[in-house]
Amino acid sequence: MQRYTTTAIALHWLIAILIIGAFTLGLVMTDIPGFSPTKLRYYAWHKWAGVTVMALAVLRLLWRLGHRPPALTAAMPAWQRAAAHGLHHLLYVFIFAVPISGYFYTLAAGFPVVYFGLFQLPVLIAKNPALAETLKSVHYWLNMSMAALVGLHVLAALKHTIVDRDGTMRRMLPGRSH
Ligand code: HEM
Ligand code: HEM
Questions:
Q1: Ligand closest to the CA atom of residue 23
Q2: What does the pLDDT look like over 151-177, one tens digit per residue?
Q3: How far is the C-alpha of 134 from the C-alpha of 144, rounded, in Å?
Q4: Ligand 1 in contact with 142 (CB < 6 A)?
Q5: Of the CATH numbers 2.30.40.10, 1.20.950.20, 3.90.550.10, 3.20.20.70, which one belongs to the domain with range 6-171?
Q6: Distance between alpha carbon 55 and the CA centroid of its chain, in Å?
Q7: Ligand 1 centre from 177 Cα, in Å?
Q8: Is the CB of 23 under 6 A from ligand 1?
Q9: d(CA 140, CA 85)
């Protein structure tokens, strides 16, 4: 069974860690009452992590367009291949849609995004409170949908590892041979 390339593996896990971190921080920070310095710091970290995901997602998509993933094991039924490919495509859509919705929500709410406090990212839309309300719930629901899909994705990975023991998990883990 062949592995994904080292670049694909590194990007997969880096993006997964950042998404899980940003997701957790998103839930924690919005639960803090008032405007404490901690809350503001968490919002900043959340936005930086999210923007980093957006940038890595562009690299990942470019890499993916130039590299076919290794073939799946021949033992896998056709419906499972189709389900895996469909789910992977959807996950790619969410890796972009979630941070983009957060970015546009922030701009519509009237806040600039200053990446790592160093430079301001483009203000692509003007402040618009009505649009901000909509984008806030869009960001929320995109997140909940992505969480459900990631849950399925992880269950599938566990099923391949524990029940089928077919080496699918090793395709996405670092190792010596490809
Ligand atoms: C991987 C990317 C991201 C994930 C997983 C994520 C996840 C979340 C989650 C789970 C929440 C809490 C929603 C709620 O309980 O109401 C949230 C809120 C928020 N996100 Fe993100 N987010 C991401 C990217 C971004 C980006 C790039 C920005 C802006 C640059 C952003 C700005 C915000 C803001 C301002 C809120 C607070 C909304 C409120 O005050 O209710 N997010 N995010
Ligand atoms: C936010 C979290 C995650 C996202 C967005 C995500 C997304 C993706 C995507 C888009 C692919 C397809 C790669 C391609 O063909 O280009 C993939 C593959 C894979 N992911 Fe994840 N993933 C996440 C977390 C995880 C976790 C936690 C696990 C393990 C427990 C995992 C295990 C795998 C495996 C084994 C593959 C390779 C599947 C195959 O052989 O075709 N992923 N993931």
A1: 1
A2: 999 999 999 999 999 889 999 999 865
A3: 15
A4: no
A5: 1.20.950.20
A6: 11
A7: 38
A8: yes
A9: 25
